[in-house]
Amino acid sequence: MIYSLKLIFLLIIYFNQAYSNELVNLRFGSNGEKNRIVLDLIEDASFDHKVYSKKIDIIFKKPIKISKNFKTLNNLQSITYDKKSNNLQLNFNKTIFSTNIYLLKKKKNVHSRIVIDYSLKKKKRKTVIIDPGHGGKDSGAVGIFKNLEKNITLKVGILLKERFEKNTNYRVVLTRKKDIFLKLRSRTKIAKENNADIFISLHADYNRNRRARGISLYTLSERASDKEAAALARRENRSDLIDGIDLSDETSEVTSILLDLTKRDTLNQSSLLVKFLINSFKNDLNLLQRTHRSAGFAVLKSLNIPSVLLEMGYLSNKKDSRLLITEKYQRKLADKIVSAVINYFDWQDKNNE
Ligand SMILES: [Zn+2]
Fold first, then answer.
1. Which domain holds residue 206?
2. What spacing in Å lies between the alpha carbon of 143 and ligand 1's midpoint?
3. How far is Cα 133 from Cα 204, in angstroms, rounded to an integer?
4. 41-70, pLDDT tens digit by residue?
């Protein structure tokens, strides 16, 4: 039942302040399971957010003008805006779960929107394994500016853990937290030991063609989708060779798992996860053509859970390289991944009931 509550709106506005942005509308939506609050803004805003049991803070980077009172609905009890910290606080009368907060950029005739999804029902906690590729004596690709793949994957991995765990429904296990060497098999072992729900391996590619750029996503397959994917799998699998492990017998394992129906379902689920990731990336980030490819990646095999390998860009490309080393871009990437994963699990929950 949707009911209305009188809004207690505390506004402290200094009128001598020039605002470049304004909150013009606040809307609600609900499909029973999921509740949505949409904040309409005149311009796209940079913000951070914090989620508490009955409260969400949206902390804007720049002051926001709020010149009218908005009606609150549903379980939103009050909204307050603290001018000093640019903090918009949404207070709920019930405990909220499964929050997903993201920005939809301004389009022609459509306001910029901050979307806040939440549920009032507690769901089973999901375990996400984030695998920062390479590490230690295995530096991975060496970038055009001498940046090492292993450092970039670790930074994004740590950011992902931080971002995911703002949402109490997620537990993130990193396969490595430091600059250490880890065999590919140890990475999958960590996933199994932790009863993981999904597995995401982070990488950054290198290509002789320096113009090649963009994000690509890989799932496991017996036969590679194309030559580049096959070559990439060989490069990524080489990680173990550094430690003197022969992968030749593992290839047959990759082949045989495809006959297993449960594995087939896992592969379908992995492809679905890729679709959610592409959807989340496509508007703001650069994607490689034919974004989803497949090959025999050792780190993805022997897992019974949806698993993807994400190449975050090309370290051989100037633009990608510059982006990948900035924290701003790393955060953006992490936020998009978190959003995609949450949407993926929401879809799963809805369709598996
Ligand atoms: Zn790699």
1. 126-351
2. 12
3. 9
4. 999 999 999 999 999 999 999 999 988 887
* 96 plus 141 within the same structural domain: no
132 CA from centroid of ligand 1 (Å)? 9
Domain end marker among 91, 119, 147: 119
- Give the chain's domain count: 2
Q: Any idea what DSSP says for residue 68? A: S
Q: How far is residue 59's CA from residue 10's CA, in Å, rounded to a whole number?
A: 16
CA 260 / ligand 1 centre spacing (Å):
28
- Mapping DSSP to helix (H, G, I), strand (E, B) and coil, where does residue 236 land? helix
Span from the CA of 311 to the centroid of ligand 1 (angstroms): 7
Tokens representing 121? 């029902």
Give yes or no: residues 149 and 280 share one domain: yes
Alpha helices in the chain (DSSP H): 149-164, 184-193, 227-241, 248-257, 261-281, 318-324, 327-351
How far, in Å, is the centroid of ligand 1 from the Cα of 157?
Answer: 13
Q: Is pLDDT at 157 greater than 90 in this prediction?
A: yes
The rounded Å distance from CA 308 to ligand 1 centre is 13
Distance 272 CA to ligand 1 centre (A): 22
Q: Do 64 and 193 fall into the same domain?
A: no
- Domain-ending residue, one of 103, 119, 135: 119
Q: Same structural domain for residues 133 and 158?
A: yes
